[in-house]
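Design review, sub-item: ligand-bound model
Attendees: FS, YL, KQ
YL presented the inputs for the glutamine complex:
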Amino acid sequence: MDAVEKKSLSEVHELLVKKEISAKELTESCIKQIEKTEQDISALLAHNFDQAIERAKEFDANPIDSPVAGIPLIIKDALVTKGLETTCASRILKGFTPVYDASAVSKLKTAGSIILAKANMDEFAMGSSTENSAYQTTKNPWNLSHVSGGSSGGSAACVAACQSFGSLGTDTGGSIRQPASFCGIVGLKPTYGRVSRFGLIAYGSSLDQIGPMTRTVEDSARILQVIAGFDKKDATSADVAVADYISAAKNTTSLQGKKIGVPKEYWADGIDDEVRIACENALKNLQSLGAELVPVSLPMTEYAIATYYIIAMSEASSNLSRFDGIRYGHRTKEFENLEELYALSRTEGFGEEVQRRIILGTYALSSGYYDAYYKKASQVRRKIREDFTEALKKCDVLIAPVSPCTAFPLGAKIENPITRYLQDIFTVSLNLAGLCGISIPVGIGHSSQLPVGIQFMGKAFDEESIISVAAALEKSQGAFPLAPLVA
Ligand code: GLN
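KQ shared the predicted structure:
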């Protein structure tokens, strides 16, 4: 069978069920595709090929039924994987081999999917281009001199390059939606608490969520179906019923009666023309599917970036204190005393951006500044959440661009971290509010020739609505083209 790796997860699922292909053939074609494309894009860290083929053979001998059964997938290196090196793309965790699987990974394995490799990322998920990885920069399969986005850039690029049928990413302030948008694929950030964070190496614990990245909406629905749900190992995982996401994706074609809120602050100045044109075109498509566009406002948007970065860095400084050179991870070779052991191990192990954030976060949490920064940010966060609650009373879902620009050239904007932080303007609020969102490709920018993504944002635990609206839009557009690297 030709180019099976270029089919969608849902299509190959059907081929597997009909026994027109085996999991072993599927796994081998993904590995071949990795061998063909990986030197160009550098999307992957640790590989698991031999074990993946073994697991595929086991699956073929004893097939099971599930939405992802027999499907090769790739996992962001922020999730621990039993027996497979997990570094969070940091030198401080080089050589760390976990003894257990993150809950999301073990659910995928139990459902019969096959783990091929770990995906590159910004170190500790801090960044929006994957250039902060301590190991390599992941390139965009649409244009190798442009970034793949981040922090889940490896997870996005590997799916866009057809190295696997889907991946897991994590989203603290946009890290699933933005790289998905930059690489022309679908990325879904579930509601906070929807997917267990057990085994996810924490960045901003009150913001982090794990979610699927795939080539179609139904494919994301399939992965979410498997990883969603309460887990007693994560105290913040929610015991809320899991809906039938796959049917929501498959069966929605009309949007008659659906109200889609258009937050005016997200459609204001500062968006590149090519992004605006593609997104406005999507609005027209939604109307022709029967949806009503409702103007809404999220007035606290201007404070979102400052609020997000204070909270994320504060939580990061606390979470990353466990990397001390004693319990696990890198330890410096020569030291005079304990203080120096800590300082040197952390200086050698953490990259520049991680160090910057630890310092800023520690400052924001220090006595004397806590009230002015962390406490204030937490209060503003509540206001941001209230904005969303109000806006979502008037509509079923909200719609906005994912990023003000398409994937930028490698090395651009690297000089000034503030410029980078400002780019997250359309994604961070959703995490602060703890709600769900999905990014889907809606066009190709006329000047950059790179994909443009749009996001739907939904109420808490209402992934069903964002999936059904996104699926309807996707069907009306027709299949999104594959990246030039693999087309
Ligand atoms: N770009 C944002 C940051 O650097 C978001 C990262 C993420 O969602 N992990 O913090």
